[in-house]
Write a structure and sequence with these properties.
Elements lengths: L11 E2 L4 H13 L4 E10 L9 E5 L4 E3 L7 H14 L3 E6 L14 E7 L4 H12 L4 E5 L12 E6 L4 E6 L2 H12 L3 E6 L2 H7 L5 E5 L15 E6 L7 H9 L4 E4 L3 H13 L4 H4 L2 E2 L11 H15 L4 E7 L7 E3 L4
Parallel strand pairs: 1-4, 9-10, 9-12, 10-11, 12-13, 13-14
Antiparallel strand pairs: 2-3, 2-6, 3-4, 5-6, 7-8, 7-16, 8-15
Helix pairs in contact: 1-3, 4-9
C-alpha cells in the first residue's frame, strides 16, 4: 500500500539577483505588507550562495530569494517570521559552530545571516534605483546583539547591476540561447534580421528585441561594462558593425560563433576596418567551452558557460564598520 502525501507548501520563489529581491521588497512596502530582509554576511567552506545573497520573508511565510540549496531555507523562513513577530534583528549561524546542532549543512561549511524585520525602506529603494540605473550600490548590514554570535558592527557589501546579455543572430541557436539566458536571469537584448525569430522571442518575459534591417546599419544596442555581447550568425556579413560598436563600449565579454578559420577571417576584416589589434584580441571565437558542437541547445549551454566563467564578481565584502548602522542601510555611492 502506498501512503498518499500532501503536497508541501511551495513558498519560495527562487530568484538570485539583488535587483529582483529589492524589487519585491519595494512592492511589499508599497502595498503596506511587512517583511523581513535576510542577508548572507559570511560563509565558510562550501556554500550554495555567495556573501551578500538576499531574500525577503513575509508574515505569511513566503520567501523571495534563497540562501541555501534547500537544506535550511525553511528554517530561515521560520526565523524570519519570528523576527517579524518580535521586531528584533537576528544574527544567525548555521553549520560548523552553530547552536542549531540539528540543522546540518551537507557541504560541511558555515553560513551567517542577518534577518532585519524593519529594514530602512528609503535605503532599499535607493539601492534598487541605482541597480536599475546600471550603477553599483553598497548596502550595510549590522548584526547587532541577538542570536549567537554577538553583534560586531556593520558589514558593507557591494552589489553590481544585473548582468546584461546582448544576443544578435538568427535561427535555432539564437532561440535556444535566448531561452536559456532568461532562466539565468540575464537582462536580455536580442537583435536579428529574422522577423520570425523576433516574433517568437518577443514572448520571453524579460527580453527586449531589436530588428536589424541591413548589415551596415546595426541597431544601437545597450552595452556597458556589465554586458556580454554574443553573435550567433552563420551569415557573417551581419557581424562587423555590431562588433565595431561593441568594442567601443568595453563589455566584459564579446564572442562570435564560427570555426577557427571563420574567426581568423572575421578578425582580419575588422583590422582592415580600422579596429586595433588590442581590441580584436578581446573577441572570443569560436565561442563556447566545448568545441565542435552541432546541437543548438548544447551550443547555447557551452557559450553561456564561457560567459559565466568570466562574469565579474557581483558582490564583494568591503570592510566592517566599528559603528553600528541600520541593518539594511543602502549607501548612495559608487563602489
Amino acid at each position: 500500500m502506498w501512503a498518499q502525501m500532501s503536497p508541501a507548501k511551495d513558498n519560495i520563489t527562487y530568484v538570485e539577483h539583488a535587483l529582483a529581491i529589492l524589487d519585491q521588497a519595494i512592492k511589499l512596502s508599497d502595498s503596506d505588507q511587512r517583511f523581513a530582509l535576510v542577508a548572507s554576511i559570511a560563509i565558510e567552506g562550501g556554500a550554495a550562495r555567495s556573501v551578500g545573497s538576499l531574500a525577503v520573508i513575509t508574515q505569511t511565510g513566503d520567501m523571495t530569494g534563497y540562501l541555501s540549496n534547500g537544506c535550511i531555507d525553511q528554517d530561515i523562513v521560520l526565523q524570519g517570521i519570528d523576527a517579524l513577530e518580535t521586531g528584533a534583528v537576528r544574527h544567525i549561524r548555521y553549520g560548523a559552530g552553530s547552536p542549531f546542532v540539528d540543522l546540518k549543512l551537507p557541504c560541511g561549511g558555515a553560513l551567517e545571516l542577518v534577518i532585519d524585520p524593519t529594514p530602512d525602506i528609503r535605503c532599499l529603494r535607493n539601492a534598487r534605483d541605482r541597480l536599475r540605473q546600471r550603477q553599483t550600490a553598497i548596502m550595510s548590514f549590522c548584526p547587532i546583539k541577538g542570536v549567537q554570535p554577538q553583534g560586531q558592527g556593520a558589514i558593507d557589501i557591494r552589489y553590481a547591476p544585473q548582468p546584461r546579455l546582448v544576443l544578435a543572430g538568427r535561427g535555432a541557436i539564437l532561440r535556444a540561447t535566448a531561452n536559456l539566458a532568461v532562466q539565468m536571469e540575464f537582462e536580455l537584448h536580442i537583435a536579428s534580421p529574422d522577423i520570425a525569430d523576433l516574433a517568437q522571442l518577443t514572448t520571453l518575459q524579460t527580453a527586449h528585441v531589436h530588428e536589424m534591417t541591413t548589415p551596415s546599419d546595426s541597431p544601437d544596442l545597450p552595452v556597458d561594462a556589465h554586458t556580454a555581447v554574443v553573435l550567433l550568425f552563420h551569415d557573417h556579413e551581419w557581424e562587423q558593425q555590431l562588433l565595431l560598436r561593441a568594442t567601443r563600449s568595453d563589455p566584459f565579454f564579446i564572442g562570435a560563433m564560427g570555426s577557427q578559420k571563420t574567426h581568423a577571417i572575421r578578425l582580419q576584416k575588422l583590422g582592415t576596418a580600422g579596429l586595433p589589434q588590442s581590441e580584436r584580441d578581446k573577441i572570443h571565437g569560436p565561442i563556447g567551452l566545448v568545441p565542435s558542437l552541432r546541437n543548438a541547445s548544447s551550443i547555447a549551454i557551452s557559450a553561456l558557460a564561457e560567459i559565466i566563467a568570466v562574469l565579474p564578481v557581483a558582490q564583494q565584502r568591503i570592510h566592517p564598520d566599528p559603528a553600528h548602522q541600520p541593518a539594511a542601510q543602502a549607501r548612495d555611492q559608487h563602489a
